[in-house]
Structures are given as structure tokens and as C-alpha cells.
């Protein structure tokens, strides 16, 4: 009895030891929020292909550069780009110091919540808003302004901090890629210094791996102390054909995978997937009007038309948000 | 006797095991090419201070951003910036396709090796040379041109590839910093796409950690294939007050240590060392006319005057090349 008991215990322990790693592996799907469909399978196959040593598609870690758009790809972009909502809040906060804004467009429209008049001010109005809210302070001051806004502002629909509205499946994808030796970059049309205060905490992407649009800055000594002052002048627009330009300027190496959601990402996807060796392109298609939003070719924000057509021609993966994602946001879990 | 022999063997082995790590450590000084002086001691003390967990000066790895100038700091810059010598070689190579250059300055001066006339063409002439040699091709083509030149061109004095003229003590410093969790960046007035083809191989610094001056590029589809074409138009000058601007733009985080050799690095050193917490500034002073060159405030290339004065006021470390460095170049070893 004693011997049988010992043998049983030994056998039991042996089995537990042997199956434990399998259990652990099966239980921790790195892409747990992705439904098992063609999109997930394509991602898994791509990662396996370029990381398999000795395989025909193997890429050394230094070459595993991957680029992600931000608005609409890593977090939501409705009812408007969150940075525009920041600019609007900022103009309202600064209004007491600018009595002239009460009668000046596009500021008047912002202060009166007149969306129609704001839209009518067009790109010129938008640039005026950005300059009034993003320039005139030092880079350190601007970082603080953005950090404070992110801590207090709430999304109009979800009543949550904007940084809650990141896509859980994309967070898992970022982590999965990094766990496999990939270096993850953001390449966004949004402001580089608007994103950097939160990308490391939210996405695990450090500031030096964030590329975006920017205004000029100027080095100055103020009372002997060096500062960088933000000027109301465009330096670089990191959108559409500007995205490959930004990638080459900031990274200097062609990525092997690109992830976007709109026509603003078309050229980035073209540039990335035209490189030699195994490449991967993916477009997030917003198809979930219930949990997030459903929009594509007719949307003013994040329009997706040409890039969707080309995705089919080029074999880029199109994520159907509604079908492919078990959850949208981390707070749903 | 047998027992004594055994005991002796055991004791001997024990001693060998105990002293082995000490031997290994003493034998592998990570800064072996640095003479033991104030400069080396200051470097060692800084690295120890910011990496000591629980210490008052501790910095987490993400904050251990360090920036290095290139020309005169990581490799030599005499008789002229190596990139200018590249531009001259390139103009000579392209001359058969440009018969008009025979009578046009500054090209005439280059083709006739007329240094005086070349100097007389000033900054305007220099920009013309750079544009003629650096623009008009795709980024992929330019990378190949630089790679081919580096493989075949020889330094006029040393008769060696330019990439042989890197400073052995600085290579050791880069490696020592990286081994301690620092992230090493180049911040150079030189061309970003001139440096990137060799920085990873020579310095262990990947292209995405190289910041420099650049011209504009344009995205185009040629027969359906995306290319980036280099345009004869300045995009960004990463020198003097441009260096902190470049650091903020490309890295987005203030470095904790900066290494330079000329007045072109002054603002980078100011910006870096004015940050909160432990900071480190270092200037390489070219004092070795025999093994390298000796120059400072009167040199046209790599002038060092204001930054040397400020080094004393700010407590930046000044490396005396002749006294502090056992060897200059790797090939001397």
C-alpha cells in the first residue's frame, strides 16, 4: 500500500511536471482578445515566419521594425481626433486671456460650441486652433499641459479618460511583437509632443519610438537656463505621403510590417510592403457601431477608401473589428 | 602522501575558483584604452552613480539616454569633415556627366584641386557641392553610393578606410555605457543618411538612434514601386542651437549625458546638463599632434573655444587626448 501510494505520487508528480508547460502555454494566448479568424491566423503566421531561425523568411531582430498609426489604429478617433478635442478645451481655457476671440473665427465657434461654423473655418481654421493651443510655451510646459489634460479630460460618449479608449487587441499585438524581438514604433499624423507624454505608459512605446507631425522649436537661454520654445510654424506633417518620409527620417530603416486604419496610412503601407523579404500590412476596419463606431469611405475622420481597395490588391490583412475582436477596450474585460 | 596530495589539489582548486572571477574582472577593464586620470575616473563614477539601485542619483534604464557628436568625437575630422571629402570625390565621379562644371565654381575648384578657390566659395559653395552630390537620387541609391565610397575611399594621411579612424577609447565608452543599460545616440551636424550606412557596424548604434542634418525627401511611385527621392533643399540643420532641437524632435526625452568636441556641441551640452538629477558633460580636446591632430580655438574644422570656457564653468569633463588616451585608433593595438 505504501509502495503503491509512493508510486502513484511519483507518477502523478511526473505527469504534472510534464503537462504543466503545455497547460501554461495553452492558457496564456498572447492574442486572447482576438477571435480565431483569418486576421489572427495571419498575424501568428507572420511572426512565426520571420522569427524562425534558419527559415526562408527569417529576419534578424535589428530588422524587425514595425510601425503603427495611432488615431483609429491604437485608440479611437471619434467623435473627432482626441488632439482636436484637446485644442478646443485648451482654447476655452485660454479664452479669458484673449477677449478678442469672442468675435474672431475659428475661436468664436469654439467658445460657442458652434460645430458648423468650426467646420466652415476649414483647414486654415484648424491650423489657427492648433497654433493658438500648441505654440508659445516651452516644450517642458507643453508636456505638463498635455499630461494635466489627459488626467482630467473625459471622452464625451464614454465619460472616461481618453487613454482608456485604447484597443485591447492592439495592446496584445504590440506586446506579442515585442516579446518576439520586434521594435514597435508609432507613425502618426498627430502631434509628436501630444503623444509622447502617454505612449510609454499606455502602449509601452518610449518617446524615441514615436514619430508624428510637429511645429518648429527654438533653443533659447532664459536667465541662463536653456529652454526650447514652441513656435507657431509647421515643421513636418507626418501624414499620407509624409509617413514614408517620416519613417526614413526618424528610423532610417524600412519597416517589415505596418498597421493602419485609413487612407492616411496608404503610403506607409505601400512603402513597408514593397520592401524585400517577408512583409506584412494590416488595416483596422471600423465595423462595430455598437461597441465602437462603424465608418469608412464617407467619414471625415479616418476616411478609409483607397487603402481598403488596395488592401485587396496587395493582400494586406483587413481586420473586421466587429468579427475579429472579442473586446474593444481594456475596461470591457 | 596521498592524502596530502589530495588536500593540496583541493586547496589549489579552491583558491583558483575563488580568485578566478577577480582575475577575470581585473583583466577586462571596459575602458582599457583610457589612462587612469580624472576623465576616466569621472566616467566610471557617473556610471556607478546613476546605475546604483537605491542610490540618490539612480536613473531607471529608460532615462539613460546619452548623446554623442560624431565628427571629432567618435572619429577624426581632419584634414576636413569626411563627408566633405565624400562630396568632393562624388563631384569628381559625376564630372563627365556635367561638362559645365569645368567652368562653374565651386565645381571648377574641386576638379582642379584648388583648395583656395574652394574655400573662397564659402558656405554657398559648400551647399552647392552637397546638393550636387547628395540629392537627385532615391534614398536606397544614396545608401549604396555611401556604402561603396566607404569601402573604397582612403584617408589621405593614414591611407586607410575612413571607418578605421574611429577612436578606440570612445568605442569602449559606448560599449561600457550600453553594458550598463544606457541607450546611445549620435547627434551630429553631419548628414543623417551619410552616417546611417556605417554607424551600426562601426559603433553599434542602429540607424534609428542617429540624428543629423538632412535634406528633404519626396515619396513617389515609379512604375508602381514606391521610392523616396532626395531633393536639393535643406530640411534640418542639426548643429549648434539645432542640436537640442534635434534631440527633442527625434528622442523626445532629455539626455542625461552628452559628449562633444567643438562649439557646435555647446548647446547640446547646455541642454543636457541643465536637466534635473545627475548629469554628465564631456568634451574631447584634440591635443595630440603626433598620433592624431592638435587644434582648438583657431581651427576652421571643429573649432573649440566657447565650449572649452564653459566646460570649466560648468564642471564638464575635458579629455586631453594626448594624456588620457593610451591608443587613438583600433589599428594601433
Largest interface: A-B, 37 and 37 residues
Instruction: Output the strand order for the largest sheet of chain A.
Output: 4-3-2-1-5-6-7
Give the DSSP E fraction of chain A (strand runs of 2 or more residues): 15-25%
- Rg calc of chain A: 24 Å
Quick one: how many beta strands of chain A? 7
Number of helices of chain A: 13
Q: Helices and strands of chain A: which structural class?
A: alpha/beta
Beginning-to-end CA distance, first to last residue of chain A: 49 Å
The biggest sheet of chain A, with number of strands, parallel, antiparallel or mixed sense and barrel status, is: 7 strands, mixed
Oligomer: homodimer
Mean pLDDT of chain A: 93
The coarse overall form of chain A would be globular
Q: Poorly predicted ranges of chain A (pLDDT <50, ≥5 residues)?
A: 18-25
Share of residues in helices of chain A: 40-55%
| H/E element order of chain A | HHEHHHHHHEHEEHEHEHEH
What distinguishing features does this structure have?
homodimer; 333 residues; 13 helices
Please sum up the structure shown.
The structure is a homodimer of 333-residue chains. Chain A has 333 residues and is an alpha/beta fold.
Record the SSE blueprint.
The structure is a homodimer of 333-residue chains.
Chain A: H1 2-27, H2 38-51, E1 65-68, H3 82-94, H4 107-111, H5 115-120, H6 122-134, H7 139-152, H8 168-179, E2 183-191, H9 192-203, E3 210-222, E4 225-236, H10 242-250, E5 257-260, H11 266-273, E6 280-285, H12 306-314, E7 317-320, H13 321-324
What does this structure look like?
The structure is a homodimer of 333-residue chains. With 333 residues, chain A is an alpha/beta fold. The first copy, chain A, is built from 13 helices and seven strands. In chain A, strands 4-3-2-1-5-6-7 form a seven-stranded mixed beta sheet, with helices on both faces. In chain A, helix 7 packs across helix 9 (192-203). The termini of chain A are far apart. Residues 18-25 of chain A have low confidence and may be disordered. The interface between A and B is large, with 37 and 37 residues.
Amino acid at each position: 500500500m505504501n509502495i503503491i501510494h509512493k508510486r502513484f505520487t511519483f507518477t502523478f508528480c511526473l505527469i504534472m511536471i510534464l503537462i504543466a508547460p503545455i497547460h501554461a502555454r495553452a492558457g496564456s494566448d498572447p492574442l486572447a482578445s482576438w477571435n480565431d479568424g483569418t486576421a489572427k491566423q495571419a498575424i501568428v503566421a507572420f511572426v512565426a515566419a520571420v522569427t524562425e531561425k534558419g527559415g526562408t523568411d527569417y529576419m534578424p531582430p535589428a530588422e524587425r521594425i514595425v510601425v503603427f498609426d495611432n488615431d483609429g489604429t491604437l485608440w479611437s478617433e471619434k467623435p473627432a481626433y482626441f488632439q482636436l478635442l484637446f485644442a478646443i478645451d485648451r482654447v476655452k481655457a485660454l479664452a479669458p486671456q484673449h477677449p478678442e476671440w469672442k468675435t474672431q473665427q475659428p475661436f468664436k465657434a469654439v467658445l460657442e460650441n458652434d460645430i458648423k461654423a468650426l467646420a466652415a473655418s476649414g483647414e486654415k481654421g484648424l491650423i489657427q486652433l492648433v497654433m493658438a493651443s500648441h505654440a508659445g510655451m516651452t516644450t517642458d510646459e507643453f508636456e505638463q499641459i498635455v499630461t494635466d489634460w489627459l488626467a482630467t479630460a473625459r471622452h464625451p460618449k464614454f465619460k472616461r479618460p481618453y487613454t482608456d479608449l485604447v484597443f485591447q487587441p492592439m495592446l496584445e499585438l504590440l506586446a506579442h511583437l515585442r516579446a518576439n524581438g520586434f521594435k514597435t514604433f508609432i507613425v502618426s499624423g498627430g502631434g509628436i509632443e501630444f503623444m509622447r507624454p502617454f505612449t510609454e505608459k499606455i502602449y509601452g512605446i518610449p518617446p524615441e519610438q514615436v514619430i508624428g507631425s510637429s511645429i518648429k522649436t527654438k533653443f533659447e537661454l532664459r536667465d541662463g537656463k536653456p529652454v526650447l520654445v514652441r513656435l507657431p510654424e509647421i515643421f513636418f506633417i507626418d501624414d499620407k505621403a509624409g509617413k514614408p518620409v517620416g519613417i526614413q527620417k526618424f528610423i532610417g530603416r524600412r519597416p517589415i510590417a505596418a498597421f493602419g486604419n485609413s487612407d492616411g496610412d496608404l503610403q506607409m503601407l505601400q512603402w513597408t510592403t514593397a520592401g524585400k523579404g517577408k512583409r506584412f500590412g494590416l488595416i483596422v476596419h471600423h465595423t462595430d457601431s455598437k461597441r465602437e463606431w462603424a465608418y469608412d469611405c464617407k467619414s471625415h475622420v479616418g476616411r478609409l477608401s483607397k487603402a481598403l481597395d488596395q488592401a485587396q490588391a496587395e493582400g494586406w490583412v483587413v481586420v473586421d473589428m466587429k468579427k475579429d475582436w472579442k473586446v474593444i477596450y481594456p475596461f470591457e474585460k
